[in-house]
Amino acid sequence: MPKESPGKPRILATRRMMPDVEHRMKSIFQATLNEEDRPMDRSEILERAARHDGLLVTSFDKLGPDFIQNLPASIRIIATHSVGYDHLSIPQAEARGIAVTNTPGVLTEATADIAMLLMLGAARGASWGDRMVRENRWGETTLTSPMGHDVSGQRLGILGMGRIGQAVARRARAFGMSVRYHARQQLPTDQTHGARYFKRLEDMLPDCDFLSINCASTPETRGMLNASMLSLLPTGAILVNTARGDIVEDEAVIQALKTGQLAAAGLDVFRNEPNIDPRYRQMDNVFLLPHLGSATPATRSAMGHKCIDNLEQYFRGERPTDLLTTPRETCLDLHTA
């Protein structure tokens, strides 16, 4: 690993962050901030990275193998302002000895809140109800139309029972929902809030009035919710996704919404966001949000500070708390290489 450059480490941030985070960054590092908060494409990030030791990126920065391969030798660490890291090529970073860190734990509650908002919004028609009021169509309502769907007392299936999945289960219990989950491994009962475990997703889906996607995007989960899987849900089920858009197949979801296999969907994440499938925008039975899972001041601040904690640990020669990679040299070799 290259020797530490004299003075403070040089960090390039690709987007603006909360003021307290940026203030701390400037006090610890030679920080290059994105003052205009405009998206930078990969070529610009590569060009500016040449004068830095580390990068602080976001999930909107799609940094695949070619990007990592072309990073200058000065870059030793990439801190992503997100829990998910499917936008980064971890194997390529490991091959180059570049450390990568993320921000687990601090956005659990905010994202679980959004999952519940999506359930309620999709089920009770928040999108079309809001439009009816704004468009002065309130007078069109009758005792039989339009109608939403009950949430309380319904059966909720959770795909992925990590921190966020567990937080969703805890909230769902307050609505009297009966909860079941599918994950790679069964969890201790004190972590599941009474949820029933299904080893096979195919066995859980027929038992779900609502399905909340809370798993990570991995080669195993991408495209998992396809037409075949969605057909296993009871007719009129409701789908909620706060994880990653590529876990579902858009064509399958859209067709299920059209046929009534899905009564509604609540979506905070999308494939190729923000360039989503335009058909979603035309559907009354879809409640859409622009990836707001972590969008509260306290949560975004905590995420930014977690990035800085990891960067600071690394440049002190320590192993970052949220290290995702195993660089060729350990972080403890930083000052002696």
Core attributes:
single chain; 337 residues; Rossmann fold; disordered N terminus; disordered C terminus; 12 strands; 2 domains; alpha/beta; 5-stranded parallel sheet
CATH C-level class of the largest domain: Alpha Beta
Number of domains: 2
Mean of pLDDT: 94
Helical percent range?
Answer: 25-40%
Terminal Cα separation, in Å? Answer: 6 Å
Strand order of the largest sheet: 8-7-6-9-10-11-12
Count of DSSP H/I helices: 11
Instruction: Tally the beta strands.
Output: 12
CATH architecture of the largest domain: 3-Layer(aba) Sandwich
Alpha-beta classification: alpha/beta
CATH homologous superfamily identity of the largest domain: NAD(P)-binding Rossmann-like Domain
Radius of gyration: 22 Å
Beta-strand fraction estimate: 5-15%
Shape: globular
Which sheet architecture does the biggest sheet show? 7 strands, parallel
Spell out the helices and strands N to C: EHEHEHEHEHHEHEEHEHEHEEH
CATH fold category name of the largest domain: Rossmann fold
**Uncertain spans, ≥5 residues at pLDDT below 50?**
1-5, 329-337
